[in-house]
Each structure stands twice: as structure tokens, then as C-alpha cells.
Amino acid sequence: MTEMPAPPVAKQVPAERSVHGDTVVDEYSWLIDRDDPDTVAYLEAENTYTQTATAHTKALQDEIFDEIKSRTLETDLSVPARHHGWWYYTRTLEGSQYPIHCRSRTEPALPADPAEPIVSPADEQVLLDQNELAGESPYFALGTFDVSPDGRLLAYSTDFDGGEKYTLRFKDLETGSTLPDEVPGTYYGSAWAADGSALFYTTVDDAMRPYRVWRHLLGTEAAADVIVHEETDERFFAGVGLTRSEQYVVIELGSQITSETWVLPATDPQGEFRVVQPREQGVEYSLDHTGDSFFIVHNKDAVDFELVVAPADAPGRENWRPVLPHTPGVRVTGVDAFAGHLVVSMRRDGRTELHVLPLADDGLVGPGRDIEFAEPVRTVRPGSNPEFDTTVFRLGYASLSTPSSVYDYDVVTRELTLRKRQPVLGGVDLSAYESVREWATASDGTRIPISLVKRRDTPRDGTAPCVLYGYGAYEASMDPWFSIARLSLLDRGYVFAIAHVRGGGELGRRWYEDGKLLHKRNTFTDFIACGEYLVEAGWTSRDRLAGRGGSAGGLLIGAVANLAVDTFATLVGEVPFVDALTTILDPSMPLTVVEWEEWGNPVESAEVYAYMKSYSPYENVEARPYPAILATAGLNDPRVGYHEPAKWVARLRATAIGDRPVLLKTEMGAGHGGPSGRYDAWRDEAFTLAFIIDTTNPANLA
């Protein structure tokens, strides 16, 4: 047996931080300097060590990768979406990392047998082949992909390093030629003028905050582009888009708890934007347009939001009329407006729902109805619906045991038609899996929902290993989703569970508010309570329980590592926000000023400082045994800096006792989302699953 090399030891360069009379020493702050040769050398040394430390799982990694690949229909076609006489869709080809974007005048037919190769229609037009654009680059991401309303032009943007700053280009779809217009340094979001003469886009400031909205006139130099809005409040992000009606360009400005919207007729791209309702601290709203009206979802005196309507030419609050009045516990999350109906997205009893409201010719709203589904634990949300004048609403559906599905709902006949279900190849019998909803009880008596999936033949006697996933921030809900890769765990006897902890939005706005600011510790203790419940209820045992989360969910994992002494055997933090206090103290960094409404402002408040310090994972590493830990990072990550997991692992390595592995895996050419190509992503997931299996149920390695 090959002897394991000693793990890397990061040098210690003590640096003092004094805030609110509290002085701490950070011996690894030097790792924030990515231009320091010692930083890169340390990251590369950790990668080498991780590769060596997991070499014995290589056969299992390859096996899981082959399982994912063999169960995935590699040559596939998305369900085409109709828009102005064209059918738009994407294709994937076996052996290719990225999708190909296409359109056709004739609706492409799906094969009767999903195992059959896709035969492209004769009149197919390839709009963009991401594989050609990516070339030999190890990383590639498409930002904007936006066809002009008249179908003549395509605006698209590309990123080759994961830094999320994109170069914007334009393609003439009639000739296939790329136009000379080129705009570097753009961000997400775009909106076309009605005649395709101009495109609106956004750029970021030094803290990666999208703060400017620009207008580019086709055929002009980028240097001539005009700023149409600059957001000076550092708490606010700026975004831009086009209503489905294609009548209005919309600038959306939002902090964590406040928003403001400006609109401009798309037929007047060089006109002046006007505000819908001036911002008011703590009030959020969003809108869509149909006919002569804006339909607005807002939370003014409505904790869980309500739907109102206002005339498009006078949309201020004084003219808001209720459509769906506020109902406590029913969280209205958005509205999609069409020529003859509305579809309202909402959350009720921890589930996602879609509610359809017909519109009369005079613009009045008729009685509504829910779109009904049989599975109680599932996720339903709007799908691709670019067509405005239609009676068919496309939606996406999935559960932990039902693959991602595309349905069309006829709002007149109320008929729900399955258009496509994600194929799962390799003879997988999906009826062999079952999903259920359980509830844990937190220390303060709050009931926390847990969604679980397992094979029906997996015993509930404490012997099954389990992976518990969590997030719990920004009111983002971790609704049940299907995963082909997850089958490789389930078929090895694992249970997979999602802890719907406070800080997310699963049970409405109050659920979010009870897991942020000075209530943030609820997120972590809820997760621990869910883990302890799974053990007590016989779903798993402590020595076979793994916790997993990413980004803000990685903060959750890091906090749990310090708080739960022996609940978990393994913890996986993906691009984890584990040095939260240091970051939130530095206004020049991403995830700082705009985040103060989520975490609090420790610069101004000694109370917030002390509270964040009490849970920030990096601040609380102690000399005690820790679970097996895998942390991942992206060198070009603009959201959670690579230095956070690097510092965390360095301090764990120097402080923790025991012999459980502590590993760091850094993508040296990628960002927040990890590897960009699908095969690379599958290999990355296979690596993580093999680590979990190795540290929770090593008998499965064979």
C-alpha cells in the first residue's frame, strides 16, 4: 500500500483585525492575493494532495461517471417553444459538452423512442453552436441569448474563465454573419427595442454589482453606448428585460428587501424611462404587462405579497386595484401575463402552485383555478413561454422520484398534456423509488419540513447511509428536484433528503425572515435538528450521515461543522461562504454592501459583529475532531472568493484533531458554478459522490 504524503501546510502570516474593540489574528489572510505565487502554489499543492488522498476511489469515480453517462440521453432535443412563427429549441449531441441553439419554421418532431437519435428537420437553422464558440477553452459560459422581436438578429455574450464578465456580440440570422458590433465587460440581462435597432444591457462595478444599464445602437461603436440608468445606492442591483408582450423595456432595481421598476415603450428606445412606483424601504414589487395594464405583485402591507392591477399610463400605487388580495401563509411569488390570461406562481403549505386567472376583453379578471397535480411532494413552475397571444401555458414539473417533465396546459379546456419527460436510460425502473415528506422539530418547537427519496427496498432501520442537503438563505427555496446522478447513491442504498430550513422561502416570507440577520443561527440549528431527526427516526445513523450545501449553503455546512459535534460523519461545502464575517466587513468586496440586508452590517453594529462572529465558520474552528470535510472552490469565482474555503481548510488542517480527511479541490480555470461542460460536470459530481461514499459507507467502494 502506498504511503500517503503529508498534507500541505499553509504558511502563517499573522494579520490583526480590530473592530468594535475586538482584535483577532488572521494568519491566512494572505491567501486573498491571487497574484502571490505562494497562493497559487498552495492551491495547486492542495489539489495534488486531494487527488492523491482520493486515488483509492478512482475506480468508483469512473463507475459513477459511466452510470451517469449511460443513463443520460446524450443526443437529445428540448421541447420546441413557438415564437412569432418560429419553433426554438436546443439540441445536444453525443460527445459534445454544450448545447446547440436552433430554430425551425416547422415544429421538430420528437422521436417515438427516446433512445432513437434526433433527426434534425430539413429547414433547421442553427443559431449558435456553443461547442464551436467554446473551441479548446477549458471553460465556457453563455450569458445573454436574446433574439430580436422581428427574428432577424441574435444578441449573445460569452465568458471563457468563469469570472462572469461577458463579451456581447450580435449575429445577423438572415445571413449568418457576425456583425462588427462588440461590447466587452457586460453582465446578465438584455432587452431589444421593438424594431431591433437597439439593445439594452448591464455592466458591473468593481464589487461585481450590476449597476449600470446601457443602450447600444446597432452599427455603432461600444464607446458610443449611452448609460440610461446608473444605480448609486450600493445596496441595489440593476437588471433589464422585455415584457412578454414586447411592449415595454423594464429596468428592475432591487436590494434584498426593496425594489423599484422603471419602464420604457419598446417602440421608443431613445426615450426616457419612467418609474412605476418610487422605492420605499422594505417594499418589493415586480410586474408584467398585458393590454393597457400592468399586473403587479407587491408586499406593501402584505407580508406574503398580493396581486394588483394598474393602468400602464398611470401605474403608481394610488391606482393599484386588488386582483388577488393578501392571504397570510400563501406566498405570491410572481405573475406571467398573456393576451387572454394570467398565471400566478405561489407557495402554499410548503408546495409550489400555479394559479390561472382568465382575462375578459375589457381587461377584467375572472375567477381563478389551480393547476392540479397528484404528487404531494413535487415542484411545479413556469416553463418557456415566449408567445404572448396563446391559450397554452408551458410548465416544468419534477419531484425527487419523477424526472424533469414539460407539460402544456390549455387554459380553456384545462387539459394538461405531457410533452416530454427527461429520459432515464439503462433500464432504470423509476417505480423502484419513493419520495416522502417528513417533519423535524427545532429546539424552539418550529416544525421543519424534510423531503426524502430512497429505493423502496432500502430499509428504514438505521443502517442506510444518507445525504442531507441544505441552503437556507435569500428566501431561495430548495424545492424537490430529480437527478440522474443521484440514482448512483440511491442504488447503493442511500437516502437523499432536503432540509427546508429557515432562511429559505419554502413556508413564506416569515420563514425567510426567521433565518436571516439576528435570526441566522436558526438556519444552522434547523439543519442539525433535521439530521438528528433522520437518525432518531431510523432513516440513517450518525456514522453514515453526510451534509452537503453550496455557496450560502456552504456557510450552513461550515457552521454545522462547528456546532454539531457528532451528528454528521461527512460534510461537503461547495464554494462555501465560510469566511463570512471577514467578507461582510469589507465594503470593497463582492457580497458585502448589497448583502448587509441579508446578514446585517457588522461595520456599523457591534451587535451584528458579535453575532456573525459567533457563527462564522472560519472564526470558530477549534481543536477538536471534525467530520470528514471536502471543500471546493473556483479560482475565478466572483461571488464567493476561492480564498474563503482555502483559508478554512488551512485553519482546519492546523487546528483540528483526529484523522478524518480535510480536502480542498479548486477549479483553477472556473468560477462559482464549477466546470462548465456537461461531461466535466459529471466527472466532478462523480468525484464528490465517491468522497461521500468513501467516508460514510466505504463498504460500497468495492
Could you please describe the fold and organization of this structure?
Among the domains are: 137-283, Prolyl oligopeptidase, N-terminal domain (Methylamine Dehydrogenase, Chain H, 7 Propeller); 435-697, Alpha/Beta hydrolase fold, catalytic domain (Rossmann fold, 3-Layer(aba) Sandwich), CATH 3.40.50.1820. It has 12 helices and 39 strands. Helix 2 packs across helix 4 (484-490), helix 2 (58-71) packs across helix 12 and helix 6 (521-536) packs across helix 7 (552-563). It is α+β, with helices and mostly antiparallel strands. It has an 8-stranded mixed β-sheet with strand order 32-33-35-34-36-37-38-39, with helices on both faces. Strands 3, 4, 5, 6 and 7 form a 5-stranded antiparallel β-sheet that branches. It has a 4-stranded antiparallel β-sheet with strand order 8-9-10-11. Strand 12 and strand 13 (198-204) form a beta hairpin.
Portion in helices: 10-25%
Name of the CATH superfamily of the domain at 435-697? Alpha/Beta hydrolase fold, catalytic domain
- Mean of all residue-level pLDDT scores: 95
Beta content comes to 25-35%
CATH architecture of the domain at 435-697, please?
3-Layer(aba) Sandwich
Task: Report the total helices.
Answer: 12
Form type: globular
Oligomer: single chain
CATH topology of the domain at 435-697: Rossmann fold
Biggest sheet overview: 8 strands, mixed
Instruction: For the record, give the distance between the C-alpha atoms at the N and C termini, rounded to a whole number.
Output: 17 Å
Strand order of the largest sheet: 32-33-35-34-36-37-38-39
Stretches where pLDDT is under 50 for at least 5 consecutive residues are none
Q: What's the count of strands?
A: 39
| Radius of gyration based on Cα positions | 25 Å
Which structural class do you get from the secondary structure elements?
Answer: alpha+beta
CATH class of the domain at 435-697: Alpha Beta
Domain Peptidase S9 prolyl oligopeptidase catalytic: 481-696
Domain Peptidase S9A N-terminal: 7-421
InterPro entries: AB_hydrolase_fold, Pept_S9A_N, Peptidase_S9_cat, Peptidase_S9A, Serine_Peptidase_S9A
Keywords: Hydrolase, Protease, Serine protease
